Amino acid sequence: MYNFTSNCFAEITRFTKNCITERGYPVEEHSVTTNDGYINSMFRIPHGKRKQSNDDISRPPVLLCHGLTCSCTGTTFSRKHVKWNPEINKDEYWNFSWHEIAIYDLPAFVDYILEKTGFDKLFFIGHSQGATVYAAFVSRRPEYNQKVALCCLLGPPIIFENTNGFRIKFVSNLIIPLMETLHNFLGLPIYELPFIGLARFLGLYSKPNTMSHTFLQSLLFFLAGNSNYDQTSKLDFTKFCYTTPNAGSMRQIYHYSQIMRNNRFAEYDYGLEENMKVYGSPDPPLYDLSKVVSPVALFYSRNDMYTDHRDMAKLEQLLGNVVYKHEVAMETFNHLDFLAGNDSIFLLYRHISKIMKKYI
């Protein structure tokens, strides 16, 4: 089977650039090396369709941070390290969760962008894991508050006190602990998220309305939330699967499972003995969300299985400076629709643009 993770960087990079240029936008590719040695790619749209890069109009930069299996360390775009090979040095390379993305990747991205653009601040938009890592990032590195003009968190999976649907319980309380047991106690190494290559193969090469195609779509919506498909009827599923789902570390999933099961937005739990070595306490420390004092805008929906409206109310209280909160005005709008919804431009993106303009 075609290796979607190791052998197709140039092909997927070309596809991503083409998606941008075909819509009339310029695009640049940049590489950023983090303090822990990972080499990540970023794609930049330097200006609009009809504008020149050297005109006098000020354009504050915007950093878009995507969700799990979309675009982060370990994916096809960012699968390099100064020392380790993800196929050979698996113990070392895949030893990260979204905590490391928060404390190493995001500071490197922010500093790089501000240096390249000459601005003092940027806008941050994070969807799903992108929202999670921002909260962890600024709570651990509060000095970066002054570098963010406004942060927009879309469907932020941070508080799980009321987010307790069957699928959440099934994945976090059964499947993930089982995989942890296989890895930690039986010695079966599970480093990368399993079956990603197979899922993308089915998405790319199975024909519409076939059993494999329908199965993959159903699995996607099982993970994203209930849908009547009204918001994804225009989604080109083949193109979508060209880059997503992508690779990731199992530790990212383990970390999410921990905060879901324990109702604690905390650092990675290594177990009692290792926690004492790493943290000096039996439990991992909580992320102090009150330290997130840069302006924050929250966007969520009632049908998103990872965010309950009551948890959004608590998150608003815990964060240090929520300036705007928006519930998407559609009952069936789910976690995937933030990215691919037919009506997202009207239900969501225009609201994001409107609040951002107040902070330029």
Automatic annotation (TrEMBL):
Keywords for this protein: Glycoprotein, Hydrolase, Lipid degradation, Lipid metabolism, Signal
Active-site residue list: S128 (nucleophile), D304 (charge relay system), H335 (charge relay system)
Tree of life domain: Eukaryota
Transport in keyword set: no
Record domain Partial AB-hydrolase lipase: where: 18-73
A Pfam family reported for this protein in Swiss-Prot or TrEMBL: Abhydrolase_1
Keyword Glycoprotein part of the UniProt annotation: yes
One GO BP annotation of this record: lipid catabolic process
Ranges for domain AB hydrolase-1: 99-338
GO function terms (MF aspect): hydrolase activity
InterPro entries with a match to the protein in the record: AB_hydrolase_1 (IPR000073), AB_hydrolase_fold (IPR029058), AB_hydrolase_lipase (IPR006693), Lipase_euk (IPR025483)
UniProt similarity note: Belongs to the AB hydrolase superfamily. Lipase family.
Protein's name in the database: Lipase
Natural source organism: Cryptolaemus montrouzieri
